[in-house]
Amino acid sequence: MRYFILLLITLGATLSNAHATESRPPNFIVIFCDNLGYGDIEPFGSTLHRTPNLNRMAEEGRKFTHFNVTAGVCTPSRSSLITGCYPQRVGMHTNPRDGWVLRPLSPYGLNPNEVTIAEVLKAQGYATGMVGKWHLGDQPEFLPTRQGFDWFFGVPYSDDMTERVWKKDGSHWPPLPLMENETVIEAPCDRDGLTKRYTERAMEWIAEHKDEPFFLYFPQAMPGSTSTPFSSPDFKGKSKNGPWGDSIEELDWSMGVMLDQLEELGIAENTFVIWTSDNGAPINPDPADLSRGSNRPLHGRGYTTSEGAFRVPTIVWQPGKVPAGTVCNELTTTMDLLPTFAKLAGGTVPTDRIIDGHDIAPLFYGEAGAKTPYEAFYYYHQDELQAVRSGPWKLFLPVKATAQHPHYKPGQATEPLLFNVVEDIASEHNVAADHPDVVKRLLALAEVAREDLGDTGRPGKGQRGPGKISGEAKPQLLASTGK
């Protein structure tokens, strides 16, 4: 009898929890790795790194093979996820002081007038938390807690931006600060321990907010921008690919901890989780050397406009909602998260400004006949439009190429290059001569982008400016010592 009563109590609690989760909008978790390449994890073809938890996530969820970021490098890429816009739209693609990535003590940051994904969800009653790498401005006006996040634990920029003098302007960078909200709690922070500490704090925050709708933005530090990534002692030296592999296998461990906790808390079926990366791996000049990551079978390296820089390994997971073991081959982007989450949360996107992303919930949930919402998608290197994609076609434009171009040599006058990036996944065959009509159509689409988002020496009519403080940028100080 006692067992029967306990069983009824447990069943009642389970049914009550299920009813509560069904009656509220979904939770959202975004894991945003740093420089993780398309070919760096097993679900996307790696035979070098062991990623059993990501294998599980793919088996229980849905892979996206044409999920794109909007820049081949940190700051502009992150601005698109946060705002639903191209970096050129919100002024986060380049600036006179830093170039295309914000540096410590920059006067620039994401304009507080922009509406962020956190602010959209907060307006719908969501708890909003962030753990990890921000990189959209390190001055108080630009920190996550001023951009819609209730709570922040992490570093304000890349973990490789450590204490040193920057040669461009002679500024002395402070020790790498680990922050909680707007207070520095450790400087320099222990970079080896970041993945573990981030995971522990993220799990604590999820547990604290399990009974209300929540949004967790979780931009991991690893594998990172340095030639030697960091990992905790439990993973250091354990992979078959040195520090790069060690850091990826610890990231996989972190993902497993999260999936298990969501199941244990009974909120897995009401929590939408997406794993992706801010851009492709930097890779080594020798294609056989994978110690700085792999974008295989895609062409090119991170920091360019290649497929290997823009197309990133992406898995979505929500048991019972996202169809298990499926694959989506439609073009989608990080800009789509804001409008999609807004719709699923019962809200709307801002109507007083252009938002470039689209609601792609039908693709996330595998609805029959769902297609990409993009007629065109644009590839910029800072303020230079270098390529445009429409359907399976990607056209590299005739430009005076820079050292960061994936196909043209620096200073070389060029002709358009056309690739079918669906059938020719490695971008090996230029078919421009065979499809002059496609070239003409994509050149016209490129002109639309130039008019709206600009091009080198040509401001776009739809561009908005970055945030900029009026005085001198100051370092965030360690609370305990004031240094």
Q: What features would you describe in this structure?
A:
- By secondary structure, this protein is α/β, with parallel strands linked by helices.
- It has two domains: about 25-365, Alkaline Phosphatase, subunit A, CATH 3.40.720; about 385-455, Arylsulfatase, C-terminal domain, CATH 3.30.1120.
- The protein has eleven helices and 18 strands.
- The protein has helices at about 1-20, 50-60, 75-85, 85-90, 115-120, 195-210, 240-265, 305-310, 335-345, 360-365, 435-455; strands at about 25-35, 60-65, 65-70, 110, 125-135, 150-155, 180, 185, 215-220, 270-275, 315, 325-330, 330-335, 375-380, 385-390, 395, 415-420, 465-470.
- The strands form four sheets. A ten-stranded mixed beta sheet has the order 8-7-6-5-9-1-10-11-2-12.
- Helix 2 packs across helix 7 (about 240-265).
- The longest helix is centred in the middle third of the chain and has 23 residues, at about 240-265.
- The protein is globular and about 60 Å long.
- The relative contact order is 0.17.
Keywords summarizing the entry:
ten-stranded mixed β-sheet; globular; disordered N terminus; alpha/beta; single chain; 11 helices; 18 strands; Arylsulfatase, C-terminal domain; 483 residues; Alkaline Phosphatase, subunit A; four-stranded antiparallel β-sheet
Provide the succession of SSEs.
Answer: HEHEEHHEHEEEEHEHEHEEEHHEEEEHE
Instruction: Work out the radius of gyration.
Output: 22 Å
> What profile does the largest beta sheet have?
10 strands, mixed
Structural class comes to alpha/beta
Full CATH superfamily name of the largest domain: Alkaline Phosphatase, subunit A
Oligomer: single chain
If you consult CATH, what is the topology of the largest domain? Alkaline Phosphatase, subunit A
SS element count, helices: 11
Number of strands: 18
Q: What is the number of independent domains?
A: 2
